[in-house]
Amino acid sequence: MSESHVRELKRQLGDSLVILGHHYQRDEVIQFADLRGDSLKLAQDAAKCRDARYIVFCGVHFMAETAAILAQPGQEVLLPDLKAGCPLADMARREDVERAWQEIGVVVDVDGEVTPVTYVNSAATLKAFCGERSGSVCTSSNAAPVLDWALAQRPRVLFFPDQHLGRNTAKSMGIPLDEMVEWNPRKLLGGNDEEALTRAKIILWRGWCNVHQRFLPEDVTAWREREPGIRVIVHPECKMEVVDLADEAGSTSYIIRRVEEAEPGTKWAIGTEANLVHRLRDEHPDQFVASLSGQPSYCRTMNLITLEKLERILEGLVRDELLNRITVGPDVARAARVALERMLEVSG
Length: 348
Description:
Layout: H1 3-13, E1 17-22, H2 27-30, E2 35-37, H3 39-48, E3 54-58, H4 61-70, E4 76-78, H5 94-107, H6 110-113, E5 114-119, H7 124-132, E6 136-138, H8 143-153, E7 156-160, H9 163-172, E8 180-183, H10 194-199, E9 202-205, H11 217-226, E10 231-234, H12 240-245, E11 248-249, H13 252-261, E12 267-271, H14 274-283, E13 288-291, H15 307-318, E14 325-326, H16 330-347
Parallel strand pairs: 1-2, 1-3, 3-4, 5-6, 5-7, 7-9, 8-9, 10-11, 10-12, 12-13
Antiparallel strand pairs: 4-14
């Protein structure tokens, strides 16, 4: 295994190959990405990769599924490690969402009053669920415009699976907390009474990101005491209490852009995945960049993608062997594509 060998494999594959890399990837992997970005940008990139025969996705499973849904006929999408899933995506299963939809329907007219919106961190079957019911997908970059669009269609939104992104986004749009309810799939009516559901504009699925859940209000307070003048910027998957204390909240791309645009000497405590924070620190030595938490904030499944696994996938392609091919059934792909294309349309 060597970086030079991976470069040679890429050279041999030429224009038939495009490697997409999420910002949370290891440095040893992301350096070989032809296109890098957050979930929104990579979904847009996947839709535009019309000429490459192979798309190798250095990210997690739901991202590779999204690329496969948006891919052109004949394109193949491969994931260097099939175990690279997403614990957040696993918190909402299609059968649980369907049951919730039926239960909500006992209280309100779901077909006429509720728009389903799924975070991109979800299985293709849930994107299809939204596509079948005139709903949409969103990312952390476009959650606000998608929610705005959804509420223009119907008076309520069922938002899954990340409660924190949904709550923080809705709150930033001026929606009061008493017009939001949390849906616990293990409880009847999600743990709510009928009055609360009737009043709710936003129904938030009880899910969370294991990485961003680790950041706490005490972390913000500690940095402000330790480094006067520090700016705290966090991902909207963090808890509301953390977002409320931060100076700014935004998607991965937003966080990167803010650091890139900042003046030398700016101090940042960043609440997001550690690989990205460390990369920003290394790329901007004229600024102070640190993780908001002293606890490890690595995404375990993102880190399953290694240089060795990427090399193995590319070696297979040179031999015309498709390893770890990602496929989505035609019916699911068709409905999921409707929801994804709606998201891309709303995002411009």
